[in-house]
């Protein structure tokens, strides 16, 4: 993926940094738009995946909507030019301040996650003399078959409203004059690659549609959430998420009536492959049991491996580029960061060519939940961003 000119540019740049390949981003967005528009589906970009301004600006230029999970994300979406009629706001813990901000911004829809939240949004909207568009986030108890830390649609998860509470929801909706019921919302987890999971979700959504309609609520919006996964193992050969199969499942199994809109909230699949974290080897420590490659980036720059034992492909760009002599002998290294935590390890036993101080290392597929989850723990500098031409 990286040609010699790019690596030369990296060599002249202070590390660590996120490198955004804008062609990869645009190719991915083209694929997403083409596959979704085939069925008239509406895609909202999940801002939480990456709110790097260049990335968000590019996504907005495609006409996608924005899925937000905080007042600041709502503000950022509007500041980046997303049409407020395409801004939705989810989250189990929306504060009064955030709700007021979203009401003032006249966003399209609040995805509401508890009965109590319905009442609060109604009261805050009433105080402003407004009506808030809302969708009920239902926890459908569908297993996403992904890492349990990023599963959101099981009874045991805090997200959404459980189906046994729907009678309360209906009763509350009938009482709340300042809410406009738009539809139902789901999001069962992230990094989902098994399309069978989405078929199960469609079946559940169909059942839930029946429930609401049987109770006198017309559904305009069916929001299926996001979660489509990417290939962390083959970022070059399988770089575009499987949008075709994903949208096809919904087109086949979701019951959509005339006048209804189907909404999606994709994050990872839209941005993950567009960035790599580029770091430099600071030290090579050869122990009796282990060889350590100590990088100038760690969990403060990319937290996913430490938080979810997530796999990211790790490459030595200096060895791959011919800048140094090719050294074919592969050695196993624990690739670690400089942070004062034993978990600060990108992966153990990574097979790499013999590596040296100053070599450039790329940690791939870092465009989603990478830069946004960076911290300044250990008083680290803010991680930099570099963009392709
Ligand atoms: C409500 C909601 N919608 C959409 C997303 C985006 O998920 P993903 O990045 O897996 O597509 C998330 C994050 O998991 C979410 O919580
Ligand atoms: N941050 C997670 C995904 C969580 C998605 C938001 N609910 C990840 O890196 O995979």
Automatic annotation (TrEMBL):
Q: Where is the Orn/DAP/Arg decarboxylase 2 N-terminal domain?
A: 32-272
The EC number(s) this enzyme carries: 4.1.1.20
Cofactor(s) it depends on:
pyridoxal 5'-phosphate
List the pathway annotation.
Answer: Amino-acid biosynthesis; L-lysine biosynthesis via DAP pathway; L-lysine from DL-2,6-diaminopimelate: step 1/1
GO molecular function: any one? diaminopimelate decarboxylase activity
Gene3D superfamilies according to UniProt: Alanine racemase, Lyase, Ornithine Decarboxylase, Chain A, domain 1
Q: Where is the Orn/DAP/Arg decarboxylase 2 C-terminal domain?
A: 18-367
**Entry superkingdom:** Bacteria
Positions carrying N6-(pyridoxal phosphate)lysine are 48
Entry's Gene Ontology BP terms: lysine biosynthetic process via diaminopimelate
What keywords are assigned to this protein?
Amino-acid biosynthesis, Decarboxylase, Lyase, Lysine biosynthesis, Pyridoxal phosphate
Q: Which InterPro entries match?
A: Ala_racemase/Decarboxylase_C (IPR009006), DAP_deCOOHase_LysA (IPR002986), De-COase2_C (IPR022643), De-COase2_N (IPR022644), De-COase2_pyr-phos_BS (IPR022653), Orn/DAP/Arg_de-COase (IPR000183), PLP-binding_barrel (IPR029066)
What does UniProt list as catalytic? Answer: 340
Coiled-coil regions listed: none
Q: Which CDD domains match?
A: PLPDE_III_DapDC
Give the similarity note. Answer: Belongs to the Orn/Lys/Arg decarboxylase class-II family.
Q: State the name under which the record lists this protein.
A: Diaminopimelate decarboxylase
């Amino acid at each position: 993926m990286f040609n010699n000119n790019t690596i030369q540019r990296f060599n002249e740049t202070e590390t660590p940094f996120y490198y955004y390949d804008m062609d990869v981003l645009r190719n991915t967005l083209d694929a997403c738009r083409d596959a979704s528009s085939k069925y008239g589906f509406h895609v909202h970009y999940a801002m939480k995946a990456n709110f790097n301004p260049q990335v968000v600006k590019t996504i907005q230029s495609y006409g996608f909507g924005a899925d937000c999970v905080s007042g600041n994300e709502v503000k950022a979406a509007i500041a980046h030019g997303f049409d407020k009629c395409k801004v939705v706001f989810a989250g189990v813990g929306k504060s009064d301040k955030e709700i007021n901000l979203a009401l003032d911004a006249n966003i399209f829809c609040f995805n509401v996650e508890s009965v109590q939240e319905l009442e609060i949004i109604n009261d805050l909207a009433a105080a402003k003399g407004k009506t808030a568009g809302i969708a009920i986030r239902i926890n459908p108890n569908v297993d996403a078959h992904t890492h349990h830390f990023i599963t959101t649609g099981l009874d045991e998860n805090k997200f959404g409203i459980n189906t046994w509470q729907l009678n309360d929801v209906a009763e509350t909706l009938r009482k709340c004059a300042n809410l406009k019921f738009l539809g139902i919302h789901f999001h069962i987890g992230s990094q989902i690659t098994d399309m069978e999971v989405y078929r199960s979700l469609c079946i559940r959504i169909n059942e839930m549609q029946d429930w609401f309609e049987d109770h006198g609520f017309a559904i305009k919006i069916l929001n299926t959430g996001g979660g489509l996964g990417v290939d962390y193992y083959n970022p070059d050969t399988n770089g575009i998420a499987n949008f075709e199969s994903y949208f096809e499942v919904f087109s086949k199994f979701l019951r959509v009536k005339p006048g209804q809109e189907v909404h999606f909230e994709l994050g990872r699949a839209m941005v993950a492959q567009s960035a790599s974290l580029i770091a430099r080897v600071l030290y090579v420590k050869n122990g009796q049991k282990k060889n350590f490659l100590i990088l100038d980036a760690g969990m403060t720059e990319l937290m996913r491996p430490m938080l979810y034992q997530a796999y990211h492909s790790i490459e030595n760009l200096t060895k791959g580029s011919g800048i140094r002599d090719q050294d074919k002998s592969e050695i196993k290294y624990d690739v670690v960061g400089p942070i004062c935590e034993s978990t600060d390890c990108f992966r153990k036993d990574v097979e790499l060519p013999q590596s040296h101080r100053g070599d450039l290392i790329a940690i791939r597929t870092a465009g989603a939940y990478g830069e946004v989850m960076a911290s300044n723990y250990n008083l680290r500098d803010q991680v930099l961003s570099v963009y392709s031409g």
